[in-house]
Structures are given as C-alpha cells and as structure tokens.
Amino acid sequence: MKLLKKIAALFAASALAVTFAGCNNSQESGDNGGSDNSGNAAFKTVDQIKESGEVTIGVFSDKNPFGYVDNTGKYQGYDVYFAERIAKDLGVELKLVPVEAASRVEFLETSKVDIILANFTVTDERKEKVDFALPYMKVALGVVSPDNAIIKSAEELNGKTLIVVKGTTAETYFTENYPDVKLQKYDEYNEAYSALQDGRGDAFSTDNTEVLAWAKSNPGFTVGVETLGSTDAIAPAVTKGNETLLKWLNDEITALADEQFFHKDYDETLAAVYGDDEAYKENLVVEGGKM
C-alpha cells in the first residue's frame, strides 16, 4: 500500500509540473509578439522588429518594374525602393521574401513576413484579413493583347479567353462583372505573359501600370484598354491587429511627403519605362497617403 501511495504521489507531482510548464510557456509566447482574434500566428511589433535587427518584407520577384529580380540576382523596382527606405528608417537589416499574388494574405496571416509591398490593391474583402496602411500609389486595370487582334473594350472579351493571375483584382473584377469571359488562371506573372506570347489566350489583364510597362518592352502587343474599373489604392499591408507597425508605416508615409519621396522613387525605378511625363507620374504616384 505504501508503495502504491508513493507511485500515486509521483504521478500527481509530474502532472502538476506539466501544468505549470504549460502555463509558463503560454505566458512566454505572449511576450514574443501579438496575435489577432482569428488565431493568426504571432506578429512582431515595431519594438520587436528593432530588437531582432531585421524587417521581413514580401515583394514580387517577377513584376517588372515594381518588384523583380534583375540579371545579377538583385531585387529592383518601385516597391523594393520603398522597402529599402523602410528598413533604413527602422534602423534594421532588410530581408526580402518573394511572394505570389495569391499568397500575399497567407504570408501575413502566418507571419512569414512583417509587411507586404507587392502592388497590393486595397479592397474591402482584403481589409477583413489584413490591415492596410496609407496608399503610396494608385492604379486601375488594363488589358494587353496582340497587335493583330487588339482588344479595345471589356465587352470584346465576351466569349474569348482572358489570361489573369490568381489572387489579383483582375480575376475578381472579371469574375463578378463579365461571366461570359473565359478566365485562364496562372500563379505567376511570368507564366501569364508566356501564355499570352504563346497565343493560349486572347488577352491578359492586370494593373494598367504593369501591362503598359510590359507592352513597351515587348513589340507586337498593345494595351487596348488602358483604364478599366475604378481607380484603386496600392498600400502596404501588415498582419491584422499589428497596430504598432501600422501606425509606424502611416507616420512614415506621411513624413516622406516632405521630401516627395515617391516622386523620387518613380524617377529612380519607373521613369526609364514610362518616361518623364509629369501627367502620367501624377496619375500613378501618391504622396502623404492622399489620393
């Protein structure tokens, strides 16, 4: 009996130790960052980013001239230029992570990145899943097609095949407004452009800034629809509930207006593609978060 009592006491002590350990681990994990009510993975606050010495920012690797990898393996583009300034002003190293359009929300929800700067258009649906900072660019949709069969209106696409990238506003817009257009969907921009060049679709739709740039460097294709749908905001996004980082980004974008930072960004990264046309620049650039 005494032996049985000793064994029972040992089991009770072990269970109690496990309980305390679980409580301690739970408390410690709460100090490592925040999480929202949906159960998203812990995010890093501004102080924690500074303490870690690194900010992780998701960008495109195949969307020239906004986020892409050049032939030397270096990230370039309008979004990358901004990402470099964010890291500098935070006083930390910059880690760039390539993302696809359809993975942008998931990369924030799982804390694979601290910020998304990947031509992320602000929509009501996306606002439910991530928090957007102030805008730094504005955009509408465009449609590019071969010179021998230029598409000049969305209606001309009825019954035809339109190439889109998954997770983009183009996919959503045509799904909701043009059910008679056959959508051919790809994960990456490079795949989508290859499909257009190979004649697998009649046209390709994405941000007008993107297709205009691509058509300029690819003879034989024309942007027959330069503006489609509403003019939307492009903004940085953070994990839902990361209020400190959201505030820091809003303050940063507001302060950068004093030096016309995004006009300089345009001159450094986009002027070579679009030219120095001031009217076009003003139709794209947003300073101080004011559309």
What are the salient characteristics of this protein?
291 residues, alpha/beta, 5-stranded mixed sheet
Written overview of the protein:
- The protein is of the alpha/beta class and 291 residues long.
- Helices cover 41% and strands 23% of the residues.
- Strands 5-1-6-13-7 form a 5-stranded mixed β-sheet. Strands 10-9-11-8-12 form a 5-stranded mixed β-sheet, with helices on both faces.
- The chain is globular and about 55 Å long.
- Mean pLDDT is 88; it is low at 1-32.
Mean pLDDT: 88
Largest sheet: 5 strands, mixed
Question: Which percent range describes the beta-strand content?
Answer: 15-25%
Q: In terms of quaternary structure, what is this?
A: single chain
String of helices and strands: HHEEEEHEHEHEEEHEHEHEEHHHH
Number of helices: 12
Distance between the termini: 80 Å
Extract low-pLDDT stretches.
1-32
Query: Which structural class do you get from the secondary structure elements?
Result: alpha/beta
Give a quick precis of the structure.
The chain is α/β, with parallel strands linked by helices and 291 residues long. The chain is built from twelve helices and 13 strands. α6 (169-177) links the parallel β9 and β10.
Give the topology.
Blueprint: H1 2-30, H2 46-52, E1 54-59, E2 62-63, E3 67-69, E4 75-76, H3 78-90, E5 93-98, H4 104-109, E6 115-116, H5 124-127, E7 130-132, E8 137-146, E9 161-165, H6 169-177, E10 182-186, H7 189-197, E11 203-207, H8 208-216, E12 221-234, E13 237-239, H9 243-256, H10 261-269, H11 271-274, H12 278-284
